[in-house]
Amino acid sequence: VASFFFIGLMSMMIPLCHVFGGLIAVCLFMGLFDGCFICIMAPIAFELVGAQDVSQAIGFLLGLMSIPMTVGPPIAGLLHDHLGTYDVAFYLAGVPPLIGGAILCFIPWVHERQKLKAR
């Protein structure tokens, strides 16, 4: 969850970097947390759906991740054409990981409620 939050935060910090060294630092942290997220994606999928459906869950996650990665750059280009800056595109790119991290915070709570209902 922390890696997801930091990915969104680092995306939003890119427009604030006015020095090349700051941009390098933001990109290093973003890469570190992105690597952490990719590494924990399989165990999270295993925890949520079980061993039987984990391959389908990972495929579904990667398929969903491909949509914004394909559609995002043209939308960023359109925003740049209309606004004259990429800042809004970077701010908007940081919102989904922040929302996703917030949703992931509720998964243990939902999981416990399901266990209590099963008892």
UniProtKB/TrEMBL annotation:
Key words, A-Z: Membrane, Transmembrane, Transmembrane helix
Protein's recorded name: MOT10 protein
A Gene Ontology cellular-component term: basolateral plasma membrane
Pfam families xref list: MFS_1 (PF07690)
Primary localisation category: membrane
Membrane spanning stretches: 20-46, 58-76, 88-110
Protein location: Membrane
GO molecular function: transmembrane transporter activity
Entry membrane topology: Multi-pass membrane protein
PANTHER family reported in the protein's UniProt record: MONOCARBOXYLATE TRANSPORTER, MONOCARBOXYLATE TRANSPORTER 10
InterPro entries: MFS, MFS_trans_sf, Proton-linked_MCT
